[in-house]
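From the methods appendix. Each design record in this collection lists the tokenized structure first, followed by the designed amino acid sequence. Records were kept in a plain field format so they could be parsed without special tools. The example shown here is representative of the layout used throughout.

RECORD:
FOLD TOKENS (341 positions):
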């Protein structure tokens, strides 16, 4: 028999015993060829199934239907375990559910499959930051910036982590760069202002909040934060004006109404301050600190009985963790009781 097998087949065709192996070889070869077609078709079908389930998951995510989205993602990954975007989005959902180990494992799988995709590093960093792991999160943000060094979202996340560990100088340098890259994006000025406020640079923070308001004049939170900065500087009139602007654009902002009351109290306008706290208590009737604030103003106004009642109400709503607040309430209550005598 030569190497092609043709001569051997001709010589041995009279022997049934010798022909059997030839037929077996032929059948085995045919099965192998068919199996390759079948496997190729299965792989293609799996990718299609995975893509369809992933698309369904994204639709559910738009409506915050996380359980349904997670089920679809599991189906997508069962069909095609190499679907990196599905691993990434599964990590996002698990992170929101507080499942740290499972979420990070999903992000790691996405990164393993596509190690040069910056967003996967960033999303992993976001998850780690949410779990309080600042340094590990920042390492992920830095890694993301290796692949997209001018991405303003990644730069901002990096700056935020630097500020978390007290490196305000470098954080502000990064945010200055971001603001210069996109000067008409109010969120950049807002984020820079937040970092400056945390660093104690109140005048600079006010300037950045003002920049936000030039671009987005109805941004209530910027007015509120700006008011807080003026309050911390002892400029209570300016603070009240900013709180009023915040409340103009968001009448439900109880923080602005409360802080307006505190600023008015510092200005000696106790009747107006009392009215602010009264309004806040309509929305937050069981807040012990607001009852304390109301009681303090009543005490300044000479309404002793009402002040004592407010302090008692404040104490009734205090939790075991409100130790410092309880001390302050009891001090002011004691003052009221002495005046009552």
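DESIGN:
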């Amino acid at each position: 028999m030569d190497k092609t097998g043709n001569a051997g087949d001709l010589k041995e065709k009279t022997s049934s015993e010798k022909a059997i192996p030839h037929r077996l070889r032929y059948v085995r070869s045919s099965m192998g060829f068919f199996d390759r077609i079948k496997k190729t078709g299965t792989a293609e079908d799996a990718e299609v199934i995975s893509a369809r389930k992933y698309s369904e998951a994204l639709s559910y995510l738009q409506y915050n239907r996380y359980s349904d989205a997670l089920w679809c993602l599991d189906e997508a990954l069962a069909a095609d375990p190499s679907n990196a975007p599905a691993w990434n989005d599964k990590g996002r959902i698990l992170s929101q559910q507080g499942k740290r180990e499972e979420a990070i494992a999903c992000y790691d799988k996405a990164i393993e499959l596509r190690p040069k995709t910056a967003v996967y590093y960033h999303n992993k960093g976001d998850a780690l930051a949410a779990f309080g792991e600042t340094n590990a999160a920042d390492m992920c943000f830095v890694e993301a910036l290796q692949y997209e060094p001018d991405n303003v979202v990644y730069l901002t996340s990096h700056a935020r982590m630097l500020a978390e560990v007290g490196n305000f100088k470098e954080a502000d340098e990064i945010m200055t760069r971001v603001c210069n890259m996109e000067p008409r994006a109010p969120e950049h000025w807002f984020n820079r202002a937040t970092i400056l406020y945390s660093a104690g640079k109140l005048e600079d923070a006010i300037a950045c909040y003002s920049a936000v308001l030039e671009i987005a004049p109805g941004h209530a939170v910027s007015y509120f934060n700006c008011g807080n900065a003026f309050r911390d500087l002892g400029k209570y009139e300016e603070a009240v004006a900013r709180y009023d602007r915040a409340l103009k654009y968001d009448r439900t902002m109880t923080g602005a109404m409360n802080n307006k009351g505190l600023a008015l109290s510092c200005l000696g306008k106790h009747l107006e301050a009392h009215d602010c706290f009264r309004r806040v208590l309509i929305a937050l009737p069981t807040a012990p600190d607001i009852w304390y604030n109301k009681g303090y103003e009543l005490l300044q106004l000479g309404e002793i009985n009402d002040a004592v009642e407010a302090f008692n109400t404040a104490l009734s709503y205090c939790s075991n963790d409100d130790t410092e607040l309880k001390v302050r309430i009891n001090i002011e209550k004691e003052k009221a009781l002495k005046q009552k005598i």
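APPENDIX NOTE: Residues 210 and 217 are 9 Å apart (CA to CA).
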